């Protein structure tokens, strides 16, 4: 089973050495991720494409490989290809008919052939032959050269015939690692999640920097979402998750800064800290999810005052985007339910925040701020490799995790319904409720509170976060269920 991976068109207009480097990177990214699903998958980078060959035609393997390639930056589309030795026109037609008969029935169609190498026929001759055959044998609605419902695609390279049976849309963008690394300031909300995704898609290894304003449950939630993004779109390269405890910085701001300036000053503190982190990692830029006027503090004047605190480049991929478009992207990339579920944790909720920050005034306010508090927060920064997040959360878990279900206990499977269908939790002896994590908080209150509930998810990360969250809200009858593996 073979795939032809077509490059994102912007790669093909690069100079020769740059294009070569990008193709090599795409090849190695695909190698890293595809080998995880089957060690015998072969990936070959060529001048105008990357070829991927699976060791078998197993359907599950094929589906996983397609899903993985569809989430890999740098790919325009993925062609699923069957390969045959090039025979006579009649043989080529018979093969084409076998693959396409069902697809062209009742539809208008066109045959398109791409040919490379020397042959004694023209592509148009073969297109006509096959088109005539399909017309005669397949109950089509006829040929339409301009707006066909189905395009029958063949490629001939030397003495090989490639028949494209399916086409999948790729992610576009540049192969991960072809652009400089960046650090994304991630709060777990819609905006920073989409901003992080956009820099990954554009080819930058994207590290995550989180300022913890809201305690352990917030941190687990943000780790979960960062892990999701990395796993799905960026796992060809390892990145860091950096967490800075910012509660005392917020406390210092609350005590010593006038309320109208708190928001801007908090962001300036974040930028100062981000600069130090970026310096340590020798990186030139960080990323935020701000967009003009989305909230009253995100005016151009305020953003300029925020920027002036650092010499690093602040990349704002969403700067002119509408909120609804941003939310739509989270749905497309599968991050909507995660982001929606992250509560607003910002402790610095300004009453009538300034929309017109003056640098002088901000600096006056900041003169009252004890910068040792910021230095201490930076001292306490934690850096972990993103692939160690699950381990880390489990090591530091504060909620008791049980391996068995006892009397008066019920399991709540909090996974997304997609996951529940894919891998049902089969426990005939226990009572299992299914409440996806995004409905949990509201539905939990309606449950019989004389019982104890054990939350279950795939890796034990979501269940820790939500159990913690419910306990913080005063529900003591909640624990985690983690079966032994
Ligand atoms: N706790 C945090 N940790 C890391 N970055 C943060 C944090 N809070 C805010 N940011 C960064 O600042 C940006 C603007 O945050 P703000 O809270 O003003 O807006 P927002 O629209 O709520 O953002 P988001 O939807 O990303 O939470 C965020 O997109 C993010 O990049």
UniProtKB/TrEMBL annotation:
Subcellular location(s) per record: Cytoplasm
Keywords from the UniProt entry: ATP-binding, Cytoplasm, Disulfide bond, Nucleotide-binding, Redox-active center, RNA-binding, Thiamine biosynthesis, Transferase, tRNA-binding
Domain THUMP stretches: 63-167
Ranges where the Rhodanese domain occurs: 435-485
Reactions that this protein is recorded to catalyse: [ThiS sulfur-carrier protein]-C-terminal Gly-Gly-AMP + S-sulfanyl-L-cysteinyl-[cysteine desulfurase] + AH2 = [ThiS sulfur-carrier protein]-C-terminal-Gly-aminoethanethioate + L-cysteinyl-[cysteine desulfurase] + A + AMP + 2 H(+); [ThiI sulfur-carrier protein]-S-sulfanyl-L-cysteine + a uridine in tRNA + 2 reduced [2Fe-2S]-[ferredoxin] + ATP + H(+) = [ThiI sulfur-carrier protein]-L-cysteine + a 4-thiouridine in tRNA + 2 oxidized [2Fe-2S]-[ferredoxin] + AMP + diphosphate
Native species: Amphritea pacifica
Taxonomy, superkingdom: Bacteria
Binding-site list for ATP: 185-186, 267, 289, 298
Alphabetized NCBIfam families for the sequence: ThiI_C_thiazole, tRNA uracil 4-sulfurtransferase ThiI
Record keyword 4Fe-4S present: no
Record's protein name: tRNA sulfurtransferase
EC number in record: 2.8.1.4
Any GO MF annotation of the entry: tRNA-uracil-4 sulfurtransferase activity
SUPFAM superfamilies registered for this protein in UniProt: Adenine nucleotide alpha hydrolases-like (SSF52402), Rhodanese/Cell cycle control phosphatase (SSF52821), THUMP domain-like (SSF143437)
Catalytic residues of the enzyme: 457
Pathway: Cofactor biosynthesis; thiamine diphosphate biosynthesis
Chief location: cytoplasm
């Amino acid at each position: 089973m073979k795939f032809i991976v077509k490059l994102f068109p912007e790669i093909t207009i690069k100079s020769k050495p740059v294009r070569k480097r990008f193709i090599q990177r795409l090849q190695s990214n695909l190698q890293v991720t595809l080998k995880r699903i089957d060690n015998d998958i072969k990936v070959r980078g060529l001048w105008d494409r990357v070829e991927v060959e699976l060791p078998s035609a197993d359907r599950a393997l094929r589906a996983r490989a397609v899903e993985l390639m569809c989430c890999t930056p740098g790919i325009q589309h993925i062609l699923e290809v069957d390969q045959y030795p090039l025979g006579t026109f009649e043989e080529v037609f018979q093969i084409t008919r076998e693959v396409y008969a069902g697809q062209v029935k009742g539809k208008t169609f066109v045959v398109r052939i791409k040919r490379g190498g020397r042959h004694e026929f023209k592509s148009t001759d073969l297109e006509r032959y096959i088109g005539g055959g399909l017309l005669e044998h397949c109950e089509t609605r006829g040929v339409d050269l301009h707006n066909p419902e189905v395009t029958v695609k063949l490629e001939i390279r030397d003495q090989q015939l490639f028949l494209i049976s399916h086409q999948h849309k790729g992610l576009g963008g540049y192969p991960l690692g072809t652009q400089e690394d960046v650090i994304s300031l991630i709060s777990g909300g819609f905006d920073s999640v989409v901003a992080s995704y956009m820099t990954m898609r554009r080819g930058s290894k994207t590290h995550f920097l989180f300022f913890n304003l809201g305690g352990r449950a917030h941190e687990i939630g943000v780790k979960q979402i960062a892990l999701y993004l990395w796993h799905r779109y960026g796992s060809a390269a390892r990145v860091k998750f950096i967490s800075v405890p910012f509660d005392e910085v917020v406390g210092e701001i609350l005590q010593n800064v006038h309320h109208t300036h708190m928001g801007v000053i908090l962001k300036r503190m974040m930028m100062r800290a981000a600069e130090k982190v970026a310096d340590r990692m020798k990186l030139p830029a960080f990323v935020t999810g701000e967009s003009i006027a989305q909230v009253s503090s995100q005016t151009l004047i305020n953003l300029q005052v925020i920027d002036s605190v650092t010499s690093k480049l602040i990349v704002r991929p969403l700067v002119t985007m509408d909120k609804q478009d941003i939310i739509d992207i989270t749905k497309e990339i599968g991050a909507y339910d995660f982001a929606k579920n992250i509560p607003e944790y910002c402790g610095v909720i300004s009453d009538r925040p300034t929309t017109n920050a003056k640098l002088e005034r901000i600096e006056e306010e900041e003169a009252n701020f004890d910068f040792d508090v910021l230095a201490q927060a930076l001292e306490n920064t934690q850096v972990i490799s993103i692939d160690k997040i699950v381990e880390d959360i489990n090591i530091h878990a504060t909620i008791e995790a049980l391996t068995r279900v006892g009397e008066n206990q019920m399991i709540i499977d909090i996974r997304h319904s997609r996951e529940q269908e894919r891998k049902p939790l089969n426990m005939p002896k226990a009572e299992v409720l299914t409440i996806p994590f995004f409905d949990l908080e509201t539905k939990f209150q309606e449950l019989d509170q004389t019982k104890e509930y054990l939350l279950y998810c795939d890796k034990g990360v979501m269940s820790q976060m939500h159990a913690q969250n419910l306990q913080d809200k005063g529900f003591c009858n909640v624990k985690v269920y983690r079966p032994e593996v």
